[in-house]
């Protein structure tokens, strides 16, 4: 599979509600496989399709506690009223994060990459990951969940970040343009290194 460039804020694809996936086919399965490669390479715990430039309702996750999977057209409900503030970061907003209040537990539904129905109860980190990634699918960035000074500080840090204004990143390499031969060459070199 391939490691795809991760889109950086404020790319429009990150701020737009993603489209439902009408059919799970080979293209969706390849997207999921590429997203796992990309997330693992970036050492993330979740990645939504818009973060790799695809406006579809798909995300992958791995909480490093035995919960790893992909969800297509996911939804969740909140069964309780308990919530908690905890730190969140984002692969599309490198090295910047904040304390976000989220429900402690959720019930998640969707499809896996084979088209089979998935239902599970999530709490702790897994619940937070799912909520964060579904926010991405709704065009909501974590900074929008910050309040007051925390939001102002995060936005100031973003505007002064070295990567701000660049469209994409793979590892430590930030690209000024997408679709260039340099991006494709970097994708191939990273994929080759993984095959060794």
From TrEMBL:
The keyword Metal-binding applies. Its EC number is 3.5.1.88. GO terms for biological process: translation. One of its GO terms (molecular function) is metal ion binding. Its cofactor is Fe(2+). Keywords: Hydrolase, Iron, Metal-binding, Protein biosynthesis. Binds 1 Fe(2+) ion. SUPFAM superfamilies: Peptide deformylase. The active site is at 133. InterPro entries: Peptide_deformylase, Peptide_deformylase_sf. Fe cation binds at residues 90, 132, 136. The keyword Transcription regulation does not apply. It catalyses: N-terminal N-formyl-L-methionyl-[peptide] + H2O = N-terminal L-methionyl-[peptide] + formate. Belongs to the polypeptide deformylase family. Removes the formyl group from the N-terminal Met of newly synthesized proteins. Requires at least a dipeptide for an efficient rate of reaction. N-terminal L-methionine is a prerequisite for activity but the enzyme has broad specificity at other positions. NCBIfam families: pept_deformyl, PRK00150.1-3. This is Peptide deformylase. The lineage of its organism: Bacteria, Bacillati, Actinomycetota, Actinomycetes, Mycobacteriales.
């Amino acid at each position: 599979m391939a490691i795809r460039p991760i889109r950086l804020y404020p790319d429009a694809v990150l701020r737009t509600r993603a489209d439902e996936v009408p059919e799970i086919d080979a293209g969706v399965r390849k997207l999921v496989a590429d997203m796992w490669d990309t997330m693992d390479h970036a050492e993330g715990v979740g990645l939504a399709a818009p973060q790799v430039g695809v406006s579809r309702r798909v995300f992958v996750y791995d909480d490093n506690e035995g919960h790893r999977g992909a969800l297509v057209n996911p939804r969740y409900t909140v069964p309780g009223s308990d919530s908690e503030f905890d730190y969140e970061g984002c692969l599309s907003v490198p090295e910047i994060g904040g304390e976000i209040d989220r429900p402690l537990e959720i019930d998640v539904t969707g499809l896996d990459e084979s088209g089979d129905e998935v239902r599970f109860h999530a709490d702790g980190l897994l619940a937070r990951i799912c909520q964060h990634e579904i926010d991405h699918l709704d065009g909501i960035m974590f900074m929008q969940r910050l309040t007051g000074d925390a939001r102002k500080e995060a936005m100031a840090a973003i505007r002064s970040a070295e990567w701000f204004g660049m469209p994409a990143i793979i590892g430590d390499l930030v690209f000024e343009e997408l679709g260039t031969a340099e991006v494709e060459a970097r994708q191939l070199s990273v994929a080759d290194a993984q095959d060794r």
